[in-house]
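Chapter review: from sequence to fold.
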Amino acid sequence: MDIKELHQLFINSTGICTDTRKVKLNALFFALKGDNFNGNKYAKNAVNEGCSFAIVDEKEYVLGDNYIEDNLIYLLLVSLVVMVKQLLKS
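The token string follows.
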């Protein structure tokens, strides 16, 4: 996904979510991974709970048009944060 496209989705969202226990309606869910968890497993729950999009990095978790597969989730998230900070400074 292009960072400009992601930024547009962000503008139309209520923010970013990485924890399905803290879902905000119309947020973007980023399925992060760690040593003991795989956020992709929670993408469906995030969308069902009200996230407008789930950004995942495993094709098997893409369940519809509001799922975006990208294997560079961390880079996308950092790039989005940097872009937003730059826009806020200007």
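Two observations follow directly from the output. DSSP finds three helices and four strands in the chain. The mean pLDDT is 91.
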